[in-house]
Amino acid sequence: MAGVHLIERLWSLKFVTGLRCRECGREYPAAAQHACEFCFGPLEVAYDYDAIAAEVSPRRIAAGPPSLWRYSALLPDADGERVDIGAGMTRLRRAPRLGAELGLSHLWIKNDGGNPTHSFKDRVVSVALSAARSFGYEVAACASTGNLANSVAAHASAAGMASIVFIPSDLERGKVAATTVYDGTVISVDGSYDDVNRLCAELSASRQWAFVNVNVRPYYAEGSKTIAFEIAEQLGWRAPDAVVIPVASGSLLTKTHKGFGELHRVGLLADEPQVAIHGAQAQGCSPIAQAFEAGSDDVLPVKPQTIAKSLAIGNPADGYYALKDARATGGRIASVPEDSVAEGMRLLARTEGIFTETAGGVTIATLERLVREGAITPDQETVAFITGVGLKTLEALEAVSTTHLRHASVEAVDEALSGAHFGSADLPSRAGA
Amino acid sequence: MSATVTIPTQLRSLTGGSGQVQATGATLADIVADLETKYPGMRERLLDDSGKLRRFVNVYVEDEDVRFIGGLGATIPDGGKVSIIPAVAGGAPEGHLRVQATARL
Question: What is the residue range of A341's domain?
């Protein structure tokens, strides 16, 4: 009965021709299914690109909504079922001061902390729950390291769906509070993210719940392409030379690569993009970086022990393809020491006024390493992906130092700041005269 | 050497719907050969054209990922437990990650 329901709904996903196995190429109707029945390979959404090319244009996209749905032609768009709380169209900012510090003349920050629940996960959840709703699901669920939990709970509330999210019990307080506030069901599990993910994989076989990153994963993953679409549009319909992307499952990296390629395929980018796709991991959970450095195609699972909890996936689902994409584009997947994560967060804050979470610290620290080692050259136009805000991971900044005054007086300020220099602005006599 | 093999939903069409079956063999390769005899078609679902385990099939012997214990050459203890799990579903059987952490020290 579910099958009949799903096939009836198939035609509402505009331009989608079905699902295709990335390994063996077998095709399936567009339904809530994520692994190939034959070889277990991951299923991807397949499109009619000729039809898309006939429909899309920069002008039509610019006339679309100020969210990722302006690229609806290149997404599984369940027309009339969109769950849209404004994900996407985040700022692409020049980062001249960070660039000067690192030795890059054309550095940009794509700040996805500007999304509705303050991380890039809103992109994937908006697309996943739109598809889930079109398939008739009433319950949204996920396994999460935190950001996804926030986003699923928020989108479900806005869509009038129930939500059940599963998280490891050691998550940062900010991420837990930013999930429970939406009043869905939050289940914390003693174990790693990989344990939680396995539990959700088992549950998805027996429950009628849309696990956004399990049974609805093919649609969910498509949402990540929109970060590439936006960067190209914001640069005036051209691609950068290099991107640096934090890597957990590897899905954001592979879909960014796919996104740039699709823009060329449908004629939105005149030239074939030559974007070096770099990946960033923290050493405490770096299975893909380890395989990259070893020259291997096999990603061996690890037990994560990293401060960057949003990247703590020890058995990454898309690791193999992330390796492949990085190698094919001249990129690298590198890791950085744990103690450089908070340094990266501080460096971005100090130079550009952007407060990112630990994953962003990993990205900035890895960017620094890649420039230092010559993998990114000074004149390459580079975009660093900042995927979430720092308020969610305050625990990472243990030593918070302020200048404390016992009395609110000008004298106390002068005394406390004696010897400090702030340039011409620190001359109290001139300001007070 | 007899082992209990856990079959994922994707392969149950070959086992008449069974989620657990018995197979015999000293190594994982022997187990796969025995499964093929009992349930024809199983081999090509588990192994690629070059005879290696497919990339997106995770196999665990006694909750240990066979990638760490010799792949198809992994030894099967008598009365052992073999689990076949699609990789894209993510994760590993309970206990597996803890075991790996020890092995990596």
Answer: 92-118+221-396
